[in-house]
């Protein structure tokens, strides 16, 4: 088979010759903020357009010590609530001139391997998004100093020196408990998801604390193995099957909307109970499906856009790299 022909890229030197300027003038013309006269820039851009030239960003990164690449680690792709966040995050990163490297954390590619991979790619930053990241991971002997800066999005950071951008869980759960107490509920339950992530979200602890302030010390705790509708359905099925009707909770707070939707389907479909008359349901995150007439789920909306903008500001250096906590918004619907 005949070897496929390749097209040679136009070089900065060739553009410089065509424009009658130096190679460094061409480089400055394509570097934002560089000192160059308007006339020189015009000549360079005309020559570049005629020769179909575009700058080599990989070569430029060697000179600037910045690849403009950001790695995003995700380990729960099956959770559909991740998609709106990922859409906003990737859109805003790209608008800031950054390239997104999405890394799937799984059984074959853990956090240590992902960090080493990202470091070898010389990314400018790593965003830990919904990942079960632990302190001991950073203590791994394979990881040394000089790793790219890390940031945690949408959960508390458990790692010293790694800032997080989070929705104010304390404020959110206070508003939720106040609403439920005002509606007359007195036998609350809480369904948590994956253990490592649940601890970092701190929603269960705040839920328990605020009910205790109102004189309600007994909280029925349910646990789902992962954040999925199936796991939510399984957890509430086990609870209802072993609990007499008179002893059941009158309101169930689920750690996120996906768990809540699965729980609602099981409560109404398999047990024939009514929501909210028999058991009220609350979620968290304001997943789009939860707002449909089929569910009309009461929930809490995280300030997604503001959270993403805050973390990008830290990465590009326009704001100080420190943990930021932002308020969200209570969404009251028919499920309570």
Automatic annotation (TrEMBL):
Protein keywords: DNA-binding, Transcription, Transcription regulation
Domain HTH lacI-type: from-to ranges: 10-64
Alphabetized InterPro entries for the sequence: HTH_LacI (IPR000843), LacI/GalR-like_sensor (IPR046335), Lambda_DNA-bd_dom_sf (IPR010982), Peripla_BP_I (IPR028082)
GO MF term set: DNA-binding transcription factor activity; transcription cis-regulatory region binding
PANTHER family xref list: HTH-TYPE TRANSCRIPTIONAL REGULATOR GALS, LACI-RELATED TRANSCRIPTIONAL REPRESSOR
UniProt source species: Rhizobium freirei PRF 81
Name of this chain's protein: HTH-type transcriptional regulator ascG
Transmembrane parts of this sequence: none
Gene name in the database record: ascG
Pfam families found in the cross-reference section: LacI, Peripla_BP_3
Keyword Acyltransferase attributed: no
């Amino acid at each position: 088979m005949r070897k496929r022909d390749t097209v040679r890229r136009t070089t900065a030197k060739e553009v410089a010759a065509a424009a009658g300027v130096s190679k460094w003038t061409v480089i400055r013309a394509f570097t934002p903020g560089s000192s160059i006269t308007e006339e020189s820039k015009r000549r360079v851009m005309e020559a570049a357009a005629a020769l179909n030239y575009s700058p080599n960003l990989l070569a430029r990164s060697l000179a600037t010590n910045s690849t403009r690449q950001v790695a995003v680690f995700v380990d729960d792709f099956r959770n559909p609530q991740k998609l709106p966040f990922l859409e906003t995050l990737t859109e805003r990163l790209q608008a800031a001139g950054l390239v997104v490297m999405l890394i799937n954390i799984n059984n074959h590619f853990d956090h240590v391997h992902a960090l080493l991979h990202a470091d070898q790619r010389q990314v400018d930053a790593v965003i830990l998004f919904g990942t079960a990241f632990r302190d001991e991971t950073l203590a791994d002997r394979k990881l040394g100093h000089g790793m790219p800066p890390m940031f945690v999005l949408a959960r508390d950071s458990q790692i010293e020196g790694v800032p997080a951008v989070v929705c104010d869980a304390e404020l959110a759960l206070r508003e939720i408990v106040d609403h439920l107490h005002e509606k007359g509920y007195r036998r609350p339950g809480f369904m948590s998801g994956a253990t490592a992530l649940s601890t970092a979200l701190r929603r269960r602890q705040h839920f328990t604390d605020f009910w205790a302030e109102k004189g309600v010390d007994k909280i029925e705790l349910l646990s789902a193995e992962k954040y999925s509708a199936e796991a939510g359905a399984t957890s509430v099925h086990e609870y209802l099957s072993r609990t007499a009707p008179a002893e059941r909770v009158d309101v169930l707070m689920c750690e996120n909307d996906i768990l809540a939707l699965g729980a609602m389907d099981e409560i109404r479909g398999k047990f024939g109970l009514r929501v909210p008359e028999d058991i009220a349901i609350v979620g968290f995150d304001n997943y789009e499906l939860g707002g449909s007439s089929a569910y009309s789920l009461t929930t809490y909306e995280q300030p997604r856009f503001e959270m993403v903008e805050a973390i990008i500001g830290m990465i590009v250096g326009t704001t100080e790299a420190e943990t930021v906590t932002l308020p969200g918004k209570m969404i009251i619907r028919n499920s309570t």
